[in-house]
Write a structure and sequence with these properties.
The protein is mainly α and 180 residues long. It has one domain: Hypothetical protein af1432. 64% of the residues lie in helices and 0% in strands. The chain is built from ten helices and no strands.
């Protein structure tokens, strides 16, 4: 499987934190899917404004707190979220970017912006998980920002997510090749 690399600063931090191979693999997968998502979204809606680099950072770091809570890598839990934000801030990353460690797991509210929604979407679609409420948030955001009909936003986003979900089996297999 050919994936884009994580940013060097993130790789260095993961090495310094002694992140497990499974965590690094997961972050790399979500980062790669995020790159495909923003590329396809930008092609379909070129006037949609958002910070693509923030989305990529969020995807690359969203679960970094699992270095402190490795049991959450294979089980449920959200203690890694605040821990991840703290780790990123301590490593010198701005709070504005470190927030993704928390917002990737949040329920939709007014504080979440398009970048947060896209990181959440990448973190679910990589394994073919479709979350209708999350997809509806993305559709609504596109409709509102671009003043396009719901059917147009829905069709484009559904096509993008269906295409991204198609490779989920290979991604899951690749992730599970890496030890926890």
């Amino acid at each position: 499987m050919i994936l884009i690399d994580l940013p060097p600063a993130i790789n260095e931090l993961l090495t310094r934190l002694k992140a497990s191979p499974r965590l690094v693999a997961h972050l790399r997968l979500v980062h790669d899917v995020s790159a495909c998502l923003v590329e396809r979204l930008s092609k379909r809606f070129p006037t949609l404004k958002y910070d693509q680099s923030a989305v990529m950072f969020g995807a690359a770091t969203h679960d970094i707190g699992k270095v402190q809570y490795p049991n959450e890598l294979t089980g449920h839990g959200n203690r890694h979220e605040e821990a991840g934000r703290a780790l990123l801030v301590q490593a010198g990353f701005p709070l504005e970017l470190a927030r993704f460690a928390v917002t990737h797991g949040q329920k939709r509210d007014e504080s979440l912006n398009l970048e947060d929604i896209l990181v959440q979407t990448a973190d679910t679609i990589w394994k073919r998980k479709r979350v209708s409420s999350l997809e509806k948030d993305l559709i609504n955001y596109v409709m509102k920002e671009l003043q396009v009909p719901e059917w147009e936003a829905f069709t484009a986003i559904d096509d993008i997510l269906t295409e991204l979900a198609a490779d989920a089996d290979a991604r899951l297999g690749w992730q599970f090749e890496h030890p926890v």
